[in-house]
């Protein structure tokens, strides 16, 4: 009796086994929050790209940073004075004998003048006749006022001021934001990330039209952070209108204001003064009203505006409309613009970020053009972990992106500060998750973690200001 040929069955089994192994290799690092170890039959012979070295994430020693960068960024005529300022800065820093050099701001501007306007405004805050304003640009890392809420509270406690600052008409996290309670109805949202009509947008990256000519915005202040309980100024900021009517009911319905919004085809604000703790703005006959948001603040002290926009990499700012930004700058001039991006860029085995660096340099230069009186501070990316070989570790792409961001600051001549090092450096995200300072996505901070970064940023800025003040005193 002839034996059956079983080759077909064997081939079928091999195909099934190969398909299963290939599928197991393609598994994500986590499934339902549980770490997964991938199956890789070729792990012993697979050639992987070389990871960027963690020790490449070391700052250039201060003395090697050029005192006078490329002439494209040289806005001061007296180069001798700049060299003198630079030498004084290093001498004073050496006298401090600080062991936190890795947390220092690296100022690539000539003569360490990158934060001069900001520090000068703080030193003259009582006679400035306006608040010192800070714009905090970022992605989901600062969404809901994470980091910014504590940073704002520290600045206002130290220098004065009240209020949450600018708040868009609505956002993805409006109901979760602890610094203001907010509800909106009747609005259609436009985003700079999906709508390329750049002339619509200022730094919030959002614009809002009424859906049927009627809409509303409700707000209530909170006491979750110092300085937020009330504000003496309420501003409605909009960019287009012909005949909309506004009615404001505020402070427990004790006060009511009815008015017709001034017409405009550019950015302007409608301001109300008093003591505001809650309110509802209702709009009628507003078919062509284009709104941006409201602002709660004081006319003095410090105001910090949070311009978080989920999924934003930052490079979109290279397309900002100059006239729109100048109009915004007329009503909300900023002394400092803090730039935080990166989480939406880091991924997997991506190690080459030259493309990102080139586009972000364009974005920084555009921000400079649109806000010529503002200082800028670029924040280096935070730590982020992935599950690799049985443990959570810093993603190598974080290292590569950090180095690209450092070069962006160096080549555009602006100050740079590292969130990565402020967190503790390599694998610090693991500690943050363990302490409940970050979520189990090993990417985003909790509010407790945000408080750690805010305190480090505030302390670093105050140390930098102390050095600046000492240099100025000696030069006087």
Concise account of the structure shown:
The protein is α+β, with helices and mostly antiparallel strands.
Structure description:
Helices cover 30% and strands 24% of the residues. It is an alpha+beta fold and 476 residues long. The chain has a 6-stranded mixed sheet, with helices on both faces. Strands 5, 7, 8, 10, 13 and 15 form a 6-stranded antiparallel sheet that branches. The termini are far apart.
Features:
six-stranded antiparallel sheet; 476 residues; alpha+beta
Portion of residues within helices: 25-40%
Rg, please? 26 Å
What is the molecular shape? globular
**Low-pLDDT windows of residues:** 29-36, 43-50, 58-77
Give the termini separation.
Answer: 110 Å
Q: Report the average pLDDT across residues.
A: 86
Taking the sheet with the most strands, its summary is: 6 strands, mixed
Q: In percent, how much strand structure appears in the residues?
A: 15-25%
Strand order of the largest sheet: 3-21-18-17-4-16
Number of helices in the DSSP assignment: 10
Structural class: alpha+beta
Number of separate strands: 21
SSE diagram, text form:
Elements lengths: L6 H19 L4 E2 L2 E2 L43 H18 L9 E2 L8 H8 L8 E7 L9 H12 L5 E4 L11 E6 L1 E5 L14 E5 L4 E7 L9 E10 L4 E6 L4 E6 L7 E9 L1 E7 L5 E8 L4 E7 L13 H10 L4 E5 L13 H17 L4 E6 L4 E4 L2 E4 L1 H17 L2 E4 H5 L4 H7 L12 H29 L1
Parallel strand pairs: 4-16, 4-17, 17-18, 18-21
Antiparallel strand pairs: 1-2, 3-21, 5-15, 6-9, 7-8, 8-15, 9-14, 10-13, 10-15, 11-12, 11-14, 19-20
Helix pairs in contact: 2-10, 4-10, 6-7
